[in-house]
Amino acid sequence: MLPKPNRLKKQKEFEYIFKNGKAIKGKYFLIKIIPSSQNYCRIGFIVSKKVAKSAVLRNKIKRRLRAAAREFRNVLGNYDIVFIAYPNIKTASYQEIKKDLKSIITKINI
After folding, report:
1. Among candidates 44, 48, 49, which has minimal Cα distance to 32?
2. Which of 29, 9, 31 is nearest to 18 (CA)?
3. Which of 30, 55, 82, 101 has its CA at a distance of 20 to 30 angstroms from the CA of residue 49?
4. At a CB cut-off of 8 Å and minimum separation 6, what does 110 contact?
5. Could you report the per-residue pLDDT of 53-79, keeping only the tens digit for each?
6. CA torsion sign, 41 to 46 to 52 to 54?
7. If we measure between CA atoms, which residue out of 44, 46, 23 comes closest to residue 34?
């Protein structure tokens, strides 16, 4: 789990990031990113039923995304970020997800 201050929870926050954020595509997910007003990074995750019908599989994907984001949280700086999973993430291993996140971080130009 991410610490409470590092979580995006409210629908208004998600909507604001969707409307105003910059999109960066990866192989397994898309991120929407916008500079944060706080002095820390806040992260949210979206894994829809189109990605995986089973709630068990959706939660597994979210756990993997959270673990990868936790490792890079300090590198991400003061941004609000939403991860949106693609359907091909079901077959990806944790190492592949981590590698994809690392390549996206280089595109952010922090």
Report:
1. 44
2. 31
3. 101
4. 75, 76, 77
5. 999 999 999 999 999 998 888 887 889
6. positive
7. 23
Contact between residue 42 and residue 21 where contact means Cβ atoms under 8 Å apart: no
Q: What is the pLDDT of residues 5-41, one digit of tens each?
A: 889 999 999 999 999 999 999 999 999 999 988 888 8
**Three-class DSSP category at 80:** strand
Q: How many CB atoms lie within 10 A of CB 64?
A: 21
**Strand extents, DSSP E, 26-75:** 29-35, 42-46
Dihedral, CA of residue 97, residue 91, residue 32 and residue 37, to nearest 10: -50
- The tokens describing 80, both together, are 């609000």
Specify whether the CB–CB gap between 66 and 2 falls below 8 A. Answer: yes
